Amino acid sequence: MRSTPHKAFATSALAIAALAAALLPGSTASAADQAACTPAQVVTNGGFESGTSPWTQSSTSVITSRSGQSAHGGAGFAWLDGTGSTHTDTLSQSVSIPSGCAATLTFWLHVDTAETTSSTAYDKLTAKIGSTTLATYSNLDKNTGFVKKSFDVSAFAGQTVTVAFTGTEDSSLQTSFVVDDVALDTSAATTPGDTTRTPASPSYTVSLTSNTAGTGWTGHESVTFTNASATALSEIYLRLWDNYHGTCSAPPITVSNVTGGTAGALSVACTALQIALPTPLAQGQSTTIGFDLGITVPSGADRFGYDGAFSMIGNALPVLAVRDGSGWHLDPYTNNGESFYSLAADFKVTLDHPTSLLVPATGSSVDTPGTSGRTVTTATATKVRDFAWAAGPFSKISGTSPGGVPINIYSVSGISSSSAQSMLTTAKSAVDAHAGRFGAYPYGELDAVIDNNFWFGGMEYPGFVLDLVSTTALTHEIGHQWWYGIVGDDEYNSPWLDEAFTDYATDLAQGLSGTNCWNSVSWASSAEKITNSMAYWDAHSSRYSTVVYGYGKCALHDLRRLIGDTAMTNLLKSYASSHWYGVSTTAEFKAAAQAATSTDLTSFWTTHRIDG
User: Fold this and answer.
1) Are the C-beta atoms of 306 and 316 separated by less than 8 Å?
2) pLDDT tens for residues 105-115?
């Protein structure tokens, strides 16, 4: 996502046991059961704010609010171990999961340890449901804050089972396992084997009016969508991504006066809003929800923030979450950049703003006069995964690439005219280079906002990028128009599918062949893989760029050398074409690569740690 990744918060790697064996005879939900499932949260006192009941604990000190550790939310938490001596703590609660429901167990975990080893798990925490171990954590998973853990436990629908945590410590050097905000949410079950991504074909209509500075926007948003799945859609989720940049008590993104559905509670650190539909939406049926929207841009040269007089407004519009064979994707925001998973959509966004502010945006824009001293910018975009814009007294220069793509460079104050011209030249070259390899750029104009204060390096949105003055970074972010924008992916769970592919495309556009780059690969652990999810990389942020960007692109260079330049060129162009406006998966790419060569690639994937 970014050309220069940074650490956000820590998450530990998951060691998840298969749940298939726990699926008892008769537990598969019938259609009638699914329709009857009432969404619920079945864990009681999961935040440990109401004493100890109904939890069973090994000692009175497990559920606590004492000093030495702190809660994820509120005052209470569960503190297992931390004694520095041979010790076992347990915590459990019996729960009943209704028949016919999909179910997800979540909790927040902080691991604090005095152990200094980087290789031996001396102290361990095991999370179980029934007799099935979901995950085991240890002193090796130490982190600086709480991280959310999530498990699909739908296999236990129709059963009463025990959710249990067991912490064991050896004879020296304490490890504390702090658990908080345990929840087990149920929802209407997805038909087994139904991997259809839905809600499909979203169409967003947005009308917003800004304050005089461009830092506050209010108005209305509506979205029309279709249920593509054979499983009825009884709810949808809106992702309010930029609430990560504020607090739940004062969220930067506010949704109110919902029509076409009933708003539930905010979840996932207030970045997800459930909206229950009045009646289940059958396959092929469409509906519209609407709501009033407020956006307050915080201070800071960020993807969502204002730098002096210049506001960057990325990921601010609420967008539909995706439901597929894994259920609803409600992953957390990560400051490492790879949170997003959305389907191609149409946007019509009307932005009423002071005429003194230029408003670069996703899509093709038309300006018309507004009321006195104001301008209305109407941006229209087709088949894009998100919509972003900026507002400020930018300096603007424009040009057209040799291939015919209109390009606009918007610079904040302090960017020299020569730097802006350099970025225009880079953008012209990059957009045509990528288009020649992967298919014609489809988004009309391309806007780039240049600010050397961006801590994150660069960030891509459809038809719109944020960047430093950097030839490589801008070439990278423009490459994302294909690898993320046109060819989508589940970024949180498969970040390599856009970052490694974009870094590879950047090398090619700059005439770099990656000669011998795989020779310098050195893995930090057996758990480290190019295909790891952001849950792993947030816990190992110092390795994220090296492995996903660096080793990822080197693996693609190695694949090119193995199957040949022509085969690799044809593979990527045909793969982009077959996934145009769709979603890529690691399994699909591996299959396409194998089909492009007579060489057995099994050992290649193993050597390069590309799983899936």
Assistant:
1) no
2) 989 999 999 99
